[in-house]
Predict the structure.
Amino acid sequence: MSTASNLPLSIVIPVYNEELNLPTLFARLYPVLDAIGRRYEIIFTNDGSADRSIELLRAQHAARPDVTRVIDFNANYGQHMAIMAAFERVRGDIIVTLDADLQNPPEEIPKLLAQMDAGSDYVGGYRLNRQDSFFRTYASKVINYVREKTTSIEMTDQGCMLRAYSRAVIDAIVRSGAINTFIPALAYSFAGNPAEVGVKHEERHAGVSNYSFYSLIRLNFDLITGFSIAPLQYFTMFAGLSSLGSFALVVLLFVRRFAFNLDRETFGVFTLLAIVLFVLSVAMIGIGLIGEYVGRTYQVVRARQRYHVKEVLETK
Ligand code: UDP
Ligand code: MG
């Protein structure tokens, strides 16, 4: 749980193998924040980087101990866990998250703050000129659409991590202890007055995205199943319709065979086999989905700590 608030602004940045980006990030971020003229802190979480990121963060902490805090994980737990660990320790009234790879220009932070000052408790950025591969951009449009249909979350661009949150929203996220940690969506569900602003998007400064195709699928599955049980309900409806359909088909086959004496040679076998396979596959999707929810319940019930902090660098 976060300590009592005593700062106007906290910046939260997850870092995973960003040694090539950190020097530029430091050079651009600190001047922007110094110029805003509010007291601030920057919390970096080193998410088990295998490169020299932690050395660079240590050096930065030594250079600016007044405003720099570093959380060092013992292993890689993922971007959202890294942000969560920082959320548990923030001291600011307004909390801003951004990526370490400079895809979210630090120069856009004042835009978010202006919208927060105008009375919002949650400001999401949406990328004006998205600089990602065609595949990434298109896939996230599809996911955005699915999310809109299955949850009550309204967001132009769920993938943009340049966002500002009020302390109350952050405290609610921390208290929820949610096993699902798609932070922008979680924050939205606690916000009273959410707003959005357009922000610039740049190409990754150096290196390649840490997200493989597989981890993106996992993340998005998290997003859908973590915020509604709509998938279960859709599944049940679909399963109901398909069993009605298969039943009607069986009736039709019997009528053709016995009332009209058709299909004498081919009756049954192949058609029924197809039906059985179809019903079976529907059942298997259902088992998988139920398993997902059961698995989540298990994780929550087990209440194992979700990450382990090796060390925290901070000046009290
Ligand atoms: N990141 C992290 N842990 C991970 C993967 C990524 O802390 O396991 C950080 C990464 O250093 C960056 C941010 O999360 O600051 C976004 O990661 P990335 O740029 O790889 O994702 P993309 O921009 O491709 O969505
Ligand atoms: Mg990136």
